[in-house]
What does this fold into?
Amino acid sequence: MITPEATDPAAARIVAKGLSKHFGDVRAVVDLSFTVEPGSVTGFLGPNGAGKTTTLRMILGLAHPDSGEATIAGRHYRDLQDPGRMVGAVLEANSFHPGRTARNHLRVYTAAAGLPDSRADEVLELVGLTPFARKLAGGFSTGMRQRLALATALLGNPRILVLDEPANGLDPEGIVWLRGFLRHLADNEGRTILVSSHVLSEVEQTVDRVVILRKGQLVREGTLQELRSQQSGSCIVRAPDEAALRAAVASLPNITIAKESDGSLRVGGATGAEIGHAAWVAHVEIHQLSDDQASLEGVFLALTGGTTE
Amino acid sequence: MSRLLRAEWRKLVTTKLWWGMLIGAVAFTAISVFAQLATNGLKRSQELPLGTGIEQRAILASASVGYIFSMVVGIIFMTTEFRHFTSRPTFLIEPRRGRVVVAKVITGAGLGVLYGLVCSAVAVALMVPWYSSKGITLGWASNDLYLVLLAVFGVVAIFAVVGVGIGVLIRNQITAVISALVWFLLLESLIGALSTLWAWLADIYKFLPAAAASAMTQIDAAPGRGGITLLVPWQGAIVLAAWGLVFAIAGWVTLTRRDVA
Ligand SMILES: Nc1ncnc2c1ncn2[C@@H]1O[C@H](COP(=O)(O)OP(=O)(O)OP(=O)(O)O)[C@@H](O)[C@H]1O
Ligand SMILES: [Mg+2]
It folds into this structure.
């Protein structure tokens, strides 16, 4: 097993600067800038159609941006020296010929990257595909295809991994395996990983930082910690006299009131204590007052405009 | 480049494509030559046409139909990358796409050499026993059959490069195969037929790829079918190879500019 060369860690930084790309009328990516720090696992998040894949393709030199640029270690992908050993990427699970065996598929790319052929067997072992090495890739299940794609990305033992929805199609067991695997690559081997997903919870336990995208635009970039601290709690309040309750809490600054389907009110922007106090002062009878800390997923959904996009 | 050539070689030998199409080429060539032998044999009582140089050359030249298979194998070899998205890992490892195209063209040429050799061998394997059973001598030297055999080999081989070139230019596999077949089996013959009417068209026609290929096997330099004058064989070979390279270069230019799926 080859280990990544110890070089300047900054050499593994991914930078997107003002990236834009459109397809016909669709503005897929709009003036997008962000940085992926070396040695971190960064979640690249956004709902379907947010522009994640398009951005990753521009970073990898497969698609040309209309404007802006993406660099890896300060260079455009096409100018990288031996990119096969520096960057590994999974774009979609189905980048293989169905009539070629898993092992032969990998041996095409060991040849192209000038790697020893033994590396093909090593990565098969790494992703748990050794028993299927001589089986045609066309007969693989979705999960096996994801593993083969990951194996292809790992061939050159790259310091940077760019993975587009690698958990897609994996069963719960596979997802747990993937999490552990990515954490292992990041923690023990210090790799830079950029992994996209449309569900935060899927990568929540794996990533250090997040880059969140909505309609091709950056809505948040930072650590998971920063995102957590963003959680603005809300309370569920139930009162027999709804109008009186509304009047009572209306005095609180910067609050939002929304009616829930079960008739209770969701009051945002105030703590339970503040709401309770306001109700007590106004002599409003209350039957329920409970804190409803929005989950991280809730914050994410709020940022990305919900699931309706 | 040697890495890329090794990778292309592995792509080629690890799927059924090369031998599957080769079986097709063998069968098609055999049927074609055999049909020529059998039908010319019927006329034997009249003037012994099997013995004349012009007939022997025509029968041998019919083996060049193998070009259809070497062209299609070249197209598929290239377009498979786009169809199954193996273009992604390929271009991730070698982002200089032009180099990949060059490796493909060279590997395609190697494939063409194999197909050319096999198609010529099929023709020889059928003609030699057939003629000896009839007691007629094949004029390898006296009837310039060696030259025709070389031309058959050349046509079949060069068409594999033409196929790779078409495949870079037209990346959709089905579209590429169908367009190529329609062009070579229908449109060019149609232009050939029309050019017997208009001299100016004939001047263009002889530089088209299929006409260039016919020129290669047409040793009988006399005005060809319907009075169209084709190029001389060596010119035909150059023109045909040039077509393959023109397609490949045009494809390379568009490939470098466009996005890879
Ligand atoms: N090749 C293309 N041609 C036309 N439109 C495209 C193309 N690729 C992407 N788009 C459009 O650009 C937008 C962004 O797509 P993209 O695939 O980047 O989103 P995504 O964030 O990866 O979504 P998903 O989570 O569904 O994978 C979408 O509206 C999509 O329809
Ligand atoms: Mg996507």
